[in-house]
C-alpha cells in the first residue's frame, strides 16, 4: 500500500511519539487532537508532555513540514486511533469499574467522515476484547456506501486492525522502534497492510494474530505485571507486621535461580497496569478472582502508606516533645506514577500526597522535579534542596534519579520504594 498521508488521532503520550516517528521517516503526518493547547504547542515545534528525545525529533519534523497538528480529522491513507480509554463513573464502592469507550467512539465517528476506499484504520488504544469490531461497526454505520471487513472480509473497501502500544514511559522513542509489535487484523489483508505500515520505522518483529487475541495480549501483559506487583506489595505489608526488612528479604529470595520478586511500592498507577486488568475482570468477573484480588491489594496500598506516615509522625512527636503536630514539616518526594516522567495519571503518589496534605495539621512539601507547576492547595510544590533542609520527616514515594543519595536534615524517613533503604 501507498501510505502517502498518515493521520494519528490523539496526540498524548503514545500518539505524539508515534506521529513523530512516522514523520521522522519523511512521511506526511497529520496529528489530530481536541486540545487547542496541544495543537498549538506541536505546531510551534514544541511538546506538551515530557519524554526524552521527543522534543528534538518533533522540532525537526515540524520545521521540515512532515508533521502538523489539527483539531479535526482530514483525509489520509491511514488513521491510527490513540485516544484514552478511561472508566465510567463507579456506581457503588464494591462495583467493578466498566470501560468508557466514548473517546474511541468519537474518534471513529470523526474519521468516518473523511474515509475513502483503500484506507487503513488501526486502533492502538488499550481496549476490552471486541472493541476493534465495535469500531468497525461504528464506521460502517456512518459510511454505509463503503464496505468493511465484518461483511466483506478481504475484499472490503476499508482495512481495520488492532495494534497495542507496548512501550515504557521515559523510553518510548527507543521502544517504539525496537520492540516487537502484535498486529491483529480483522482479516489477513488487514494484518498485512498494518504490518507494512509499522515496518516504516519498527525494527522489531511484527507478529500477526487476530484482533481479539491482540486486544487480549495487551490486557494480559499488564494484568500479569499487576499480579506480580500485588505479591510484592502484600509481602511488604506482611514484613512490616513481622519486623522484617522487606528489601533484604526480596534481595535474598531473588538469589534463587527461579525467583524474581519485584520491588514493592506505594501502589500502582498510570493508564496501563492499574487499568487494563479491569477490562478483563469487567467482561469475565466469575473467572478472574486472582486478578481482582491483585487489583484490590494494589489499590489498598496507598491507604497503608498513609497509615505508615501517620506512625512516623507519632514516633517523631514522642521523641520531640517540644513540638506539636502543627509544627511538623513533612516532605513527600515524587508525584508521578513512576520514576523519571511527568505523568500523573492514576498516580498513587499523587493520591497519597493529596490525602496527607488534607489530614496533616502542619506544612506539607511535595517535590516533583518533572513538573514545574501543579495547581492545588493541599501541599506546597518546592525544590528538593528546600525539602531536604527544612523537613522534619521525609517520605519517598517515587524513585526519581534526583532523589538518589539524599542529604536529609532528619533521621525520620519512610522509603516506600527501596531507593533509600
Topology:
Elements: E1 5-9, H1 15-24, E2 28-32, H2 36-43, H3 54-63, E3 67-70, E4 78-81, H4 102-112, E5 120-123, H5 131-142, H6 149-152, E6 159-162, H7 172-178, E7 181-185, H8 188-198, E8 206-210, H9 211-241, H10 246-253, H11 276-283, H12 289-319, E9 330-333, H13 348-359, E10 364-367, E11 380-381, H14 384-390, E12 393-396, E13 413-415
Parallel strand pairs: 1-2, 1-4, 2-3, 4-5, 5-6, 7-8, 9-10, 9-12, 10-11, 12-13
Antiparallel strand pairs: 6-7
Summarize the structure in words.
The protein has 421 residues and is α/β, with parallel strands linked by helices. It has two domains: 5-204, Rossmann fold; 244-415, Rossmann fold. It has helices at residues 15-24, 36-43, 54-63, 102-112, 131-142, 149-152, 172-178, 188-198, 211-241, 246-253, 276-283, 289-319, 348-359, 384-390; strands at 5-9, 28-32, 67-70, 78-81, 120-123, 159-162, 181-185, 206-210, 330-333, 364-367, 380-381, 393-396, 413-415. An eight-stranded mixed beta sheet has the order 3-2-1-4-5-6-7-8, with helices on both faces. Helix 1 packs across helix 3 (54-63). The longest helix is centred in the middle third of the chain and has 31 residues, at 211-241. The N and C termini lie far apart (55 Å).
* Beta-strand share of residues: 5-15%
Characterize the overall form.
globular
Distance between the termini: 55 Å
Supply the CATH superfamily name of the largest domain: NAD(P)-binding Rossmann-like Domain
List keywords for this structure.
421 residues; alpha/beta; Rossmann fold; 2 domains; 8-stranded mixed β-sheet; 5-stranded parallel β-sheet; 14 helices; 13 strands; globular
